[in-house]
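FORM 7B: Structural annotation worksheet

SECTION A. Query
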Amino acid sequence: MEALFIGHAYIDITFIADSLPTGDDKTIADDYAVAFGGNAVTAAFCAAKLGLKAELLCQQADDWLARMFLEMASRAGVSVHGRKVAESSISFIMPKDGKRAIVRCRDSEFRHPFPILNLDGCRGLHLDGHMADAALHYAKECRARGMLTSLDGGSARPGTDELLEHIDVAVISERMCEQMHLNPLAMLAYLRSKGCKVGAVTLGERGLVWFEDGKEAQTMPARLVPPEKVIDTSGAGDVFHGAYFYSALTRPELSWADHFDFGRSASAFAVQHLGNEASLPTLEDVEAMRATLPLST
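SECTION B. Predicted structure
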């Protein structure tokens, strides 16, 4: 294992349709995709596609959706460590006009404690805050071993405040800022107070604000994808996390400006494809986005 990812796994069903029917109405979707889903899960698949040997700790049921997920992970080269639940989780996602509506069915009632894994050879940990007890245990252990610890702060979850005390790189969504009643700059100040070495707040098509090693906050614009090429923004943020995490582990000599640039280029590729599997870029895809897409203003 080179990197450990901990999060909640889904099977995502993503479809393109003009509208959702109500009552007894029916409609026909224009296209659909079935893929793995979940914040840290998609980041793990992205990092594996780019070249990391990734292992994933997530909930695992004994049903046909779980077997589908394990087949996807096997094809992607992601090793899965399951924690028993009764039912697999599933998401129904409808992208439209640069946004996406999501309905989720989730089982997070764990039947057993989280597994204790051998971390020999591991260089980094990426979390999304789900499975809070395991996240805190491994954040403490990996930080003590000098590994890079990274958090996708998509939402404020139970235990996030304590977890941040063991995180090197925290990248927070606007949604989490709103939940905590903090503007982006106040959130960066909060991350500094928790001891994070790198902190960022993602702003979607407006890029991000971030700091590195105690320096002043700065902005980074997004790469500008023509609106007519934007198909599905769901999962693009997870690809961003997986890509910057890959860059940080494989090219530690570079600055975080470089790692975040790599991530924003990967997410620019992702939004042009339907479903998480098709959204994962290769190294060549990331470089193509860097070479061809301008920066937003």
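SECTION C. Observations
The two ends are 40 Å apart (CA to CA). The mean pLDDT is 95.

SECTION D. Sign-off
Analyst initials: ____
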